[in-house]
């Protein structure tokens, strides 16, 4: 179901998502590379457990997630989907194409993982 929705929404969602939500500042990119934050299967950024998160970084992540939620809401309304379906469709795209080697991510079971050259991203079941 989500894969069908993702295929339908992918182009518009990816283009729209790439602008405000993925236009991350250097601090978010640096934190992602340092393993402090990562993408989650729910379509939002999250904090890796045990990471030392500054108030500034926490605010940047929260602001980014607010922007994502606004985007998901707008796109879901335009396409007759739920916000969660939209977030999941975008998460599938992000998991498939945008998590770089060395970056951390939270899978659909809530487990934090790290992408390595020998361990590709574990795709959520709803992406198939």
Oligomer: single chain
Q: What is the N-to-C succession of helices and strands?
A: HHEEHHEE
Average pLDDT level: 87
Strand element count? 4
- What's the alpha carbon Rg, rounded to whole Å? 14 Å
Query: How much strand content do the residues show?
Result: 5-15%
Alpha plus pi helix count: 4
Shape: globular
Give the terminus-to-terminus CA distance.
8 Å
Identify the strand order in the major beta sheet.
2-1-3-4
Indicate the structural class.
alpha+beta
Poorly predicted runs are: 11-22
Helix content: 40-55%
Q: Main beta sheet, described?
A: 4 strands, mixed
Question: Can you walk me through this structure?
Answer:
With 128 residues, the chain is an alpha+beta fold. It is 51% helix and 10% strand. It contains four helices and four strands, in the order H-H-E-E-H-H-E-E. The chain has helices at 2-18, 26-33, 55-79, 83-97, and strands spanning 37-40, 45-47, 104-106, 112-114. The chain has a four-stranded mixed beta sheet. A hairpin with a 4-residue loop joins strand 1 and strand 2. Helix 1 packs across helix 3 and helix 3 crosses helix 4. The model is unreliable at 11-22 (pLDDT under 50).
């Amino acid at each position: 179901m989500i894969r069908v929705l993702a295929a339908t929404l992918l182009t518009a969602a990816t283009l729209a998502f790439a602008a405000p939500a993925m236009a991350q500042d250097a601090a978010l990119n640096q934190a992602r590379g340092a393993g402090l934050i990562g993408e989650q299967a729910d379509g939002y950024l999250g904090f890796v457990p045990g990471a030392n998160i500054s108030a500034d970084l926490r605010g940047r992540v929260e602001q980014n997630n607010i922007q994502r939620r606004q985007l998901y809401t707008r796109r879901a309304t335009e396409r007759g989907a739920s916000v969660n379906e939209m977030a999941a469709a975008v998460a599938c795209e992000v998991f498939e194409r945008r998590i770089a080697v060395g970056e951390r991510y939270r899978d659909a079971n809530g487990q934090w993982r790290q992408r390595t050259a020998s361990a590709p991203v574990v795709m959520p079941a709803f992406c198939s």
